[in-house]
Amino acid sequence: NKKAFVELLFWKSPATVYEMTKGYNSLQEAEGTTRSRVPPWTPQEEQELRELYWKYKEVEGGDVIAAILAHLPAPGRTRRQVVKQLVRM
Q1: DSSP 62
Q2: Name one GO cellular component term (predicted).
């Protein structure tokens, strides 16, 4: 890359340095391989998640996500996955 010297003039994050050394978009490709281990949400799971959210969202003083995780039939879902899916929906 003939213009790499210009990039060296500015501070870089570790992710940017990785892309500079391994090639641009290589970080996204590497993340794609790790994300494939997480099973995608099926339409039935999304529907169950939606129903559980509407059921527990009005509970006073309770943690909505904890209540959803306790009643979610699909095992192996993390709190972060549930929150991310709720935001996406």
Answers
A1: S
A2: replication fork protection complex
List, in order, residues 6 or more apart from 81 with CB less than 8 Å away: 38
Give per-residue pLDDT as tens, 10-69: 777 887 777 777 777 766 665 555 555 778 888 898 899 898 888 888 877 778 888 888
- Number of residues in the chain: 89
Reading phi first (left if > 0) and then psi (alpha if -120 to 50, else beta), residue 23 is in: left
pTM of the shown model: 0.55
Q: Are 74 and 43 in contact (CB under 8 A)?
A: no
CA–CA dist 88, 32 (Å, integer): 18
Q: Could you tell me the residue ranges of all domains in the chain?
A: 3-88
The answer to whether the CB of 45 falls within 8 A of the CB of 29 is no
